[in-house]
Each structure stands twice: as structure tokens, then as C-alpha cells.
Amino acid sequence: MDELDKAHNETQYHRRDAVRKAAQKSWRSYRAFAWRRDELAPQSLTGKDSFAGWGATLVDSLDTLWIMGLREEFDEAVRAVGAIDWNKASSSHCSLFETNIRYLGGLLSAYDLSGREILFKKAVELGDMLFAGFDTPNHLPANSYNFNKAKNGELQASSRQSLAVLGSMSVEFTRLSQLTGDPKYYSIVEQLKRGLEKTQEQTNLPGLWPKYIDLIEGTRPSSDTLFTLGAQADSAYEYLSKTYLLLGGLDPSYELMHIKAMDAAVKHLLFRPMLPSGDDDPYEAGSPPPDVLFSGNAVSTHRDQSKLQPRVQHLGCFAGGMFALGGKLFDRPDHVQIGEQLARGCAWAYEAFSTGIMPEISELVPCEKAEREAGGINDHLTQCPWNEAKWRQKKKKAAAVLAAPAAMNTRFTSDTNSQTTLPKPFTKLLDSHYLLRPEAIESLFILYRITGKKDLLDIAWRMFQSITKATETKFAFSAIENVHLQNPGQPTTKTDSMESFWMAETLKYFYLIFSPEDGAAEGSGEEGVTLDGWVFNTEAHPLRVPRPIVGVEERKGSEDEEKSK
Q: Where are the alpha helices (DSSP H) in 132-221?
């Protein structure tokens, strides 16, 4: 190893150690003030239950503790998980979607990593409970899972359900069937897949599904006209390539569905922002505008016609990783490139704001069709010249729209002054919060593992430093109210919230991007978490890709190994 490599490895070690310390601080406070509750309120130092009270942070953090080599904390957490009683909840119902990705995904991942049998037992218990969520007249899922109605067989699928609910069970239920040898879990998500496959070309934008689906009439697209890769739809698209990988490529329909969806998203949802070059922006003198893309929304009332809404969601930042992973998996280098442009777009948006963090939802000026330069395939994504007057006009119009409800409603919280000082080319802040979300670092992690481009590590480190500086409290970390401060030196306003995905996703992805490529914890001797051997669910829980034998024998081997220790 030469001196350059040695210095690089030492830098990444120190960065990884800083992430681990942030996780330890968060975990110690959760353990001290909110043990076995769903979340820690990091300022008032109390526990709160947002996900049925089974201990969302407890279960969601298991694999993070294992991957970071925090074995004492992991062992204590496993003992607490063993005492969870799914029949005792803090509310009368739970979200099928959230319970699946946070609890079931967390249990399966921790079992795949550690082989602890109690985790497998709890996963089967929960899987059977969630399976009852499909006990509806048409065997489609009831996301609002009312426990009493479930016991009496009275659950009903919603007439207007989000696409994410319909498409985000396949990874966890497939893995559960692989581990148990019981096909019932896989069969129910196979039914959902067939419904999505059948309707993919029947929507207004063939290849994409609308944000909401009518489940009463089956999986046919409803009259909903909004299409997005963001909230209420995101993980349904994410799981197409990931289920393909988890199944070892044995079901080619997932590949076909993924390719159709991504090509349609490129056509209708992706856009290039109008950006100043060095000649137009004194802060970037002499430099060209960055090569970045974003994912927005599309409204379609007629077949294969859409109107772009250049609305950027932090949730949608996962799309860079999705495009890159699918592009690598299905030999689509153009999709890998698009994934990089999307991931770098969100990273650029982070650095555009005074806190170094991008907002929850914002709008910016896209390159219009008439302004775009010809460029062959996907030429609608090529560069366009900066137009200062156009940006100012759109920003002024957006500020007026936001000011109107503020004048009529004192509860309206938009900061008009903040809106008028937005960085180019942003025109509107629809939600200025940062909720400790992981999607931007998620895409950078996947992109780094696929491309090996080392500048991504420095981008990730700046992102981590900005997040911790803006969100750290005395005992943990908190979501903040506004990422766009007029004075960069002023303290942020914390909202006393630390959702379980902070430990489950955000800190895990930061830790892994600074880890060796095999992902192994320092000095642990454990197998690393790689992109070809593991599939991350949408809550960042890595599930093992079976090789070469799937099912009961695999679990039996893990049991025998655990008993021999």
C-alpha cells in the first residue's frame, strides 16, 4: 500500500468513526430516555409512539448496531426485541406499509446478519400478522390495519391507495418465504406484481402508474392524474430491480417492468434545472454549470401527454441510486449515468442552501423545451442557457402565491422573506424542514459502490458535517424547521423529532460509504454488506441474496452454526 492509499484509508477511518460516534450518542439517549418506545424526542427527552408502540427505533436500529460492530448494544437490543408482544399495541391500528419496512425488514436483516434465532421467530410472528392484512374480499392489502377488524376478518382494501403500499411488500415477503420455505408470503406479493404488470401499459403515461391506485376494483389505474417518483409512489419503483436481484434473476418480469418504468420516468418526470454558469454567477466564476438532473411530478389527463411540475422532494433523492443500481444490473450504462446526474443533483441542492442541507420540498426553474439544445436521445435533458429575468419573474410569482394564504391564515408558516432570498434557480420552498432523511446519502453510497469515484466521499463528508452541525442537540439529533437561514451563523430551530430512520438509514449509509468496499465492520471479521450479495429494503435493511440454495436449508444452516458457537 503506497502513502496515498494509506492516507486515503486513514481519512475514511476517521470519517467512519465520526459517524459511529453520532450513532452511539443517538442510541445511548434512546436507551436512557425512550427505551422500547417508538421514538426519542431528542429535546424534551421523552419517548413517543408513532408506530403502534412496539419499539420502532429498537427494531429499526438492530442491523445498524451490528454493522457498526456495537455488539453489546446489539445483544441488549435483541433481548428487548424478544419480549415484544405484537398483540399489545399503543393504538387500535398500524400502517401495513410502515410495519413491513421498519419492523419486518429490520428483523429479517438483523437475522440475516447475525443468525440469532429469536429474530427469525419474531419475524415469522409479525409476517403472519401482516399476512392477515391481505384477508380482504379481493385479497388486496388494507394499509390501515385495524387489529379488531383483522381478528374478525372485516378488513377492507381502500378505494384509493398509494402506489407505494401496493408495490412495497415484495422484498420482505419474498425473503420471508425464502427463509421459511413457506410460499404463502411470496404468493401474495406475486399476485400484486401480476396486477401491476397487467396495468403498466394502461395508464395515461405507459410504463408509469399514478400516485394512487383503486384497490376496490383491483389494481387497475384510477382516474388519478398525478405521476411521481416521490412520496406515496417511491418504493414501488425501487422494489422492481431489488426483487429481481433477491430472486436471483429467476423472474424476468421484474426486469421488464423496471426498464419500462425508468424509460418512462426519463421521458416524463426527469428534468434539468436552468443553472447559471460562471459568467452568470460570481460565486462560481469561470466554471460551467454542474451536470445535474432532478425528478419532479407529472400531471397527465390524456394518453402519453404530461405537464411537468418541477417540484423536488427530498424523498425523491433515492432515484439516483435506483437508476444506477438498475443500470448496472440490467446493462444500461445510460441509466447509470442518469443515476449519477440525479445523485449529484441532490448533493448540489444540499450545498446550495445556507445550512448545507436541501429542504423537504422545493421548486426550481427547469430547462424549457424551446430552450433546450438538441442532443439526440434524451435531448430534453440537455443544458439550457441561464435566464436571470425568467428566474426573478418566477420567484416573484411564487412568493406572491405563498403570501396570499399567509395573509389570511396566521397559522400559515411560510417565511416570505426567506422565499425572496432563495439561491438560484430555486423559486419556492413548499416545505423548508429537514427531517433527518437518508435519500441523498443513500444514492451517493450506491453510486460510489458502483463507480468508485472518490470525489463522492468528500461530497458525503461535507453532507454529514452539515447535517450534524444543523441538527445536533445536547443528547442526540433533531429534525429542523428551516434549512434556509438568512444568517448562516444563526442556530437552527429544532422540532424535537428523531424518527427511527435516522439510525436505520441515514447513519448506516454514511457509515457504509466510508467503510471498505466489502462493508465489513472494522476488525469484526464479519462478512461485509455488498451490493451484489445483499438487497437493501426501502428502510436500508440489507437482506441476504440466497446463494445457491434458497429456503429452509439456508435457515437450518444458520441455526446449526448458531448452536455450535
A: 147-151, 163-167, 170-180, 184-199
Percent helix / strand / coil, the chain, rounded to 5 = 50, 10, 40
Distance, in Å, from the CA atom of 81 to the CA atom of 61, rounded to the nearest integer, reads 11
Cis peptide before 141 (omega within 30 of 0): no
pLDDT tens for each residue of 482-508: 999 988 789 999 999 999 999 999 999
Mean pLDDT (whole number) for 75-85: 98
Distance between CA atoms of 318 and 238, rounded to whole angstroms?
A: 8
Spatial contact of 559 and 119, defined as CB atoms under 8 Å apart: no
The answer to whether residues 86 and 145 touch, using CB atoms and an 8 Å cutoff, is no
| 3-class DSSP assignment, residue 166 | helix
Q: What is the pLDDT of residue 412?
A: 39
Mean pLDDT of 404-411: 53
Of 144, 440, 482, 175, residue with least CA distance to 318: 440
Paired residues of 271 in beta bridges: 294
pLDDT in tens, 497-544: 999 999 999 999 999 999 997 655 555 545 689 999 999 999 999 999
Q: To the nearest 10°, report the CA torsion of 210, 213, 218, 220.
A: -20
Closest to 488 (Cα-Cα) out of 349, 356, 354: 354
Q: Supply the mean pLDDT for the chain.
A: 90
Q: Which three cell numbers stand for residue 228?
A: 411521481
pLDDT in the model for residue 487:
86
Give the cell for residue 383. Answer: 443544458
Cα→Cα distances 296→230, 276, 422, Å: 8, 20, 19
The rounded distance, in Å, linking the Cα atoms of 482 and 21 is 25
Does the predicted model carry a pTM greater than 0.90?
yes
Q: What is the share, in percent, of the chain residues with pLDDT greater than 70? A: 88
| Among 316, 251, 228, 530, residue whose Cα is nearest residue 243 | 251
Place of cell 461530497: 459
Evaluate if residue 560 carries a pLDDT over 80. Answer: no
Residues in the chain: 565
Cell of 510: 454514511
Residue by residue, DSSP assigns 173-187 as HHHHHHHH--THHHH
Contacts 24+ apart (CB under 8 A), 143-151: 143/95, 143/96, 143/97, 144/93, 144/95, 144/96, 145/93, 145/94, 145/95, 145/96, 145/99, 146/92, 146/93, 147/89, 147/92, 147/93, 147/94, 148/92
With a CB cutoff of 8 Å and minimum separation 6, the contacts of 188 are: 131, 134, 139, 169, 173
Q: What are the tens digits of pLDDT across the range 272-328?
A: 999 997 655 544 555 789 999 999 999 999 998 999 999 999 999 999 999 999 999
